[in-house]
Amino acid sequence: MADILPTLTDDAVMDFIASGYIRLDGVISDAFNRKCTNVPPGPAKEFVGSPDFLREVLLHPTVAGAVRSLLGHNFLVPTGGHHHLFNAPYAGQDWHSDGISGAGYEIKELQCYYYPSAVGIEDGPTIILPGSHCRSVNRDAIAHYGDLLGQLALLVIPGSVVLTRYGIWHKAGPKFTSTPRSMIKFSYHRKSPPKRDWLIESETIPEYVDRPGYTYASGVESYRDLRRRIRTWNWLCGLTEAESMVFDRWRPSYETGVQPVEEITIH
Ligand SMILES: O=C(O)CCC(=O)C(=O)O
User: Fold this and answer.
1) What distance in angstroms lies between residue 126's CA and the mean position of ligand 1's atoms?
2) What pLDDT score does 256 carry?
3) Contact criterion met (CB below 8 Å) for 132 and 94
4) Between the CA of residue 207 and those of 33, 46, 85, 238, 249, what are the distances in Å?
5) pLDDT at 8 > cutoff 90
6) Does ligand 1 lie within 6 Å of residue 170's CB atom?
7) What is the Å distance from ligand 1's center to 95 Cα?
8) Hey, whose CA ends up nearest to atom 6 of ligand 1?
9) Domain locations along the chain
């Protein structure tokens, strides 16, 4: 059995809840990065499912430790992935989020991008929109957006892995070079119920400490982000709905003070 130790602290978990991503720069060995050179584009079940990939990437202590912190013990390890390889210059993709990503508060899936080679701004880097991971969107509605205030081009050194909250808005940026640009994508999933068992200094669960709002979010959207972050934090810490209410200091008064209708007697 692989013994994976968590690596994230309360603070790092709170950061991830707000931003929706963690970058781990240059963690995979150069020897393994070089082995990715001839991987064909498209579905990469065989390569990602191989014992080498498992040992060198999926269960790398830094990668798996961050996954363990966010998805709990005995998380589900990917057995397949997809190789996003672009060789020729290319206009780039439209903004999108993957699959049936939605607006849930829970963290049940981490979608990861592994870059075996360096990616510069001319090479068509993946561009993400930090903080966009909890917005339920119509894919067609965001496709026409151009540059967005706060977007982040993932310029990376070889062997970097970026963990994202499934649902984050992303796209492959425009590519001006003919150097191959490789990104291997795979997802880990949660199996166990949430529990605050990452690196903690005290058993007392701290309240979520807010992170700054994003420049692209108006006042009301920033407020919604804050409420979503609090709910995600409370859920990750394994709090019940009732316990969570106590911790959600921004809850408006009209959302508090509920009582089951069957307990009510009318005099
Ligand atoms: O290749 C990239 O940088 C992003 C591609 C991607 O994630 C996608 O097509 O869903």
Assistant:
1) 7
2) 66
3) no
4) 40, 43, 42, 13, 9
5) yes
6) yes
7) 10
8) 171
9) 10-189, 219-262
